[in-house]
UniProtKB/TrEMBL annotation:
A GO molecular function held by the record: DNA binding
InterPro entries: DNA_brk_join_enz, Integrase-like_cat_sf, Integrase_recombinase_N, Tyrosine_recombinase_XerCD
Keyword Ribosomal protein: no
GO BP terms, alphabetized: DNA integration; DNA recombination
UniProtKB keywords: DNA recombination, DNA-binding
Protein's name in the database: Conserved domain protein
The organism of origin for this protein: Paraprevotella xylaniphila YIT 11841
Keyword rRNA-binding set for record: no
Domain of life: Bacteria
Length: 399
């Protein structure tokens, strides 16, 4: 009877203090070892050198399941095959893929709750299930043509038409990385969707405000109404909008999380992209005198701003700001005023009205220009140009 077991060879420790995870295959009292792309350290092993890391165990179980399925297809033929022939068969490519994409994706989302916007991934999955008309969708069914049809299905929801397919594409790539083992010629998910490009939405047209509208938001009077001793949502929203515009589009997550302020500069690491950037998305913003009183108004004890003392999460802060801005928008006649309008308007006015170079604005937004990624590796970051540009923008706006 053919058997499989995940193991390591105790005496085969590598120079980097790791062991390669192996699948031990036993057939007619003979043993062979199939190498995997997984490696473990001492902390992943028990005292008797058995694997205890559950993530590694789960991946090994998936591999073993693949191997068992292939052996079962041989039926009685396996009895006439020597062990090396069986190993060659196990390593051969198998084009069939019966992987449940939805089940994998939901499990992946549950394990990555720290990702900003993970709820959008789950909403996208629900939407995809409605498109297919069922809860089970195989990875083999996620094709370029199907994603284009899904885009058309979302044509009346412009934001979703851009957001949801992008989320599905990311989840599909995670599934490929998890199930495929190219080193061992195990390709369970064949297609790679490299020819599919999610539809891009022009969000700037919707969110950017005019110079006059920005000035109206800044000049709208406070109500002065206090709720449990603190500013009401409407007045808080005005202040946060002003902070964002004058701090180079700083978003609510970073207003909530920022911890470094020396009285002249705020240093923070952009929450949205710090895990995807070599420089951790570092930003140093010089505070213009016009905004200093507002910073002092909201000074926190342990962080730059005290929003963490009032709100349990950055999501709660963002929701409160947007509720307040809707009221301000109604007062000023600005449809669907959103917090991100401060960031989009800052960039739009800087380029179109103040004449600031697009690449400087790109840095002000803490974006990465893909054409400059290699060059950036050789250059020490200088934040003076973006801060000079920001001061120029503020002085254009408010004198």
């Amino acid at each position: 009877m053919a058997t499989f077991k995940a193991t390591i060879k105790k005496d085969k420790q590598r120079s980097d203090k790791t062991w390669n995870v192996l699948i031990r295959f036993t057939h007619e009292r003979k043993v062979r070892y199939i190498s995997t792309t997984m490696y473990v350290t001492k902390k992943d092993l028990t005292a008797s050198f058995k694997i205890k890391n559950q993530q590694v165990i789960d991946k090994c179980d998936d591999l073993i399941r693949i191997y068992r399925d292939k052996v079962n297809k041989l039926n009685l033929e396996i009895n006439s095959m020597d062990i090396d022939s069986v190993i060659d068969y196990l390593k051969s490519k198998d084009d069939k893929s019966g992987i449940d994409f939805i089940a994998f994706s939901r499990k992946w989302c549950a394990a990555h709750t720290e990702i900003k916007g993970i709820r959008n991934y789950l909403t996208a999955l629900n939407s995809l299930c409605m498109f297919f008309g069922r809860e089970t969708i195989l990875c083999s069914e996620i094709t370029v043509q199907k994603l284009k049809e899904y885009e058309e299905y979302l044509s009346d929801k412009k934001r979703a038409q851009s957001l949801y397919p992008s989320a599905i594409l990311r989840l599909f790539m995670e599934a490929r990385n998890y199930y495929n083992d190219e080193d061992n010629d195990i390709i369970r998910i064949k297609q790679n969707l490299s020819k599919y490009k999610p539809k891009q939405q022009n969000v700037a047209e919707k969110r950017a405000l005019s110079v006059e509208e920005i000035r109206n938001v800044f000049n709208i009077p406070y109500t002065g109404i206090k709720v449990r001793g603190m500013d009401n949502r409407r007045d808080l929203a005005k202040d946060c909008f002003m902070l964002s515009f004058c701090l180079m589009g700083m978003n609510s997550a970073d207003l909530y999380n920022a911890t470094e302020y020396d009285g002249e500069h705020i240093t923070y690491y952009r929450t949205k992209t710090k895990d995807r950037r070599n420089d951790n998305a570092k930003m140093i913003v010089k505070v213009h005198p016009i905004i200093k009183p507002l910073i002092e108004k909201y000074r926190g004890k342990e962080r730059v701003f005290n929003f963490y003392e009032r709100f349990s999460s950055m999501g709660d802060l963002n929701r409160s700001i947007n509720i307040g801005l809707k009221g301000i928008g109604r007062e000023l006649g600005i449809d669907n005023l959103q917090f991100y309008s401060a960031r989009h308007s800052m960039a739009t006015i800087a380029i179109n009205k103040v004449g600031i170079n697009k690449y400087i604005v790109n840095d002000m937004l803490c974006h990465v220009d893909s054409s400059m990624r290699i060059t950036d590796l050789y250059i020490q970051k200088d934040f003076a140009p973006v801060n000079d540009a920001n001061f120029k923008l503020i002085e254009y706006m408010f004198g």
